[in-house]
From TrEMBL:
Its cofactor is FMN. Residues 11-131 form the DUF7795 domain. Residues 243-490 form the DUS-like FMN-binding domain. This is tRNA-dihydrouridine synthase. CDD domains: DUS_like_FMN. Pfam families: DUF7795 (PF25071), Dus (PF01207). Keywords: Coiled coil, Flavoprotein, FMN, Oxidoreductase. Residues 103-137 form a coiled coil. The lineage of its organism: Eukaryota, Viridiplantae, Streptophyta, Embryophyta, Tracheophyta. The keyword Transport does not apply.
Amino acid sequence: MKDEDMEARIEQKKKISEIFKDFMTGITQLEELGNAANTFLLRFQQGLSFLQRPPMVTSSKLMENIIKKNETRRLKSYIEAGCINIHDAAQSTRALHTSLSGLSDHLIKAKSLLIELERLTDEAALAIESATQLDKDSSDKLRQVTCDEENETAQLPQGPEITEYAALIAVIYSMMKQNYAMQEKIVRSLSLKTSSGELETYSLMWSLRPFVEASSGVFDFFVAAFDVATKKTKMDYQNKLVLAPMVRVGTLSFRMLAAEYGADITYGEEIIDHKLVKCERRINVAYGTTEFVEKGTDNVVFSTCNEERNRVVFQMGTSDAVRALKAAEIVCNDVATVDINMGCPKAFSIQGGMGAALLSKPELIHDILATLKRNLDVPVTCKIRLLKSPADTVELARRIEKLGVPALAVHGRKIADRPRDPAKWDEIADVVAALSIPVIANGDVLEYDDFSRIKTATGAASVMVARGAMWNASIFSPKGKSHWEDVKKKYLRKSILWNNDVKSTKYTIKEMIAHHSCLELPEGKSINKADTLEDLARLYDLEDYFWTVKNIGPLTHDLNHVL
Ligand SMILES: Cc1cc2nc3c(=O)[nH]c(=O)nc-3n(C[C@H](O)[C@H](O)[C@H](O)COP(=O)(O)O)c2cc1C
């Protein structure tokens, strides 16, 4: 072999061994980060076990006497809370916050190390390519040389060594990437509601990490164990009461309110894909929420929490499959379902080719739903309106069903209809009769009894309600409606608890007042003047609650019954 070939080989071997050295240094750093983060996980587990102590046993004679003789509201609330000392609890919460911040910080650092490792893996792959090329060139030349020269080739550095290094790098990298994905899932799942059993599984998964082998399928086992631990299930669409998507209204606080009254599935407000692709995911430790925030700003575009993970539907406005996928990938791990809005008749949506504009573009519908379905692990659904004729609606619904969506929501109005026009339940019935997947019927459900009425009239599997819930979220309660003023106040508490956007809070409260009373009265005028949640809290005598939430953060969720 020629001298220059020999030199090139030696150079390549040197290069791959340097790449390997750098790669292994990165792996060691990643291991160290993982170990440090494990300490945070253990601290989180300890902190939580303090807060999740079982309630006090009140059945002993002694306790019975104490309670009888001191039957004050305060004592009762202490006993209900298991006598958690607020000071200790607050300290424990702070420890939990520190652990969560530490874990989030770990993810950021580990991610940037992984990016560097990916770069080295790519370099290793390039090294194989050039080694292969060199092999090919040398063998071409070899065909023309003497036996002596052939002997010389036997002493050359061997190509396969480069391949072996590169293969090892690729395998370890894929392992570390999977480990990172698992750590990310664990950290995302942590909340004050995480059970001690789940936490033990997480700790075990975290500590077994170095022994997971990429090729053994062990990782799949852990993923399955993870899903069992987090009780992640596919959405069930039979006999469900569903909160409809509502812009400005359907934020986290309203969804939590509706769920508390009995909603099984809660849609978020429609968010346009253009907006979501500009967002990054952040954990808001102070409120116990996961937020999607426009990069470089504090603008929270979507907020959710672990508690609603299995019932929240993220509704998106889109007119493009690739952009829709890019946007959906940002939120899909934190929501139960991704839904595409195909019913919005507003000029903004139609002009952008979104919402109801999609109803007349079945190819685009196909493109969007098929792309999302192929690439996402969560279910993908859509919500449509009625088309001009029942036959057209049925034809479109059938086409959508063929794409494999697990359910279809049908709003019983046409594009030209106004909200005051009655919803056409009979045309929803036509769709139900033509499909085998569950249909979610929507339109004019204003009382609890309407849930069964619309089901009987349409044969739908589930029922969705928008305005009826906005005006009084207790519509979901089988116990009957609460007074709207009480619901309004409860909603404000939820808005404070989940740090809802003040504009959304004002809008929703004003909708309630406008429906039941009159916005021209002093209450409505004062709401208009409010600039912050604190202003609103003052207006409704909820200042103490506002400051308690500010001071003890997500612990408020657990002590809700005491406060
Ligand atoms: C304030 C408000 C906002 C709405 N925003 C959305 C939305 O973001 N996405 C959507 O698909 N429909 C939206 N809708 C339509 C509702 O989801 C629902 O289809 C419609 O109001 C009919 O249901 P209802 O008769 O129970 O009100 C909105 C409706 C209201 C009242």
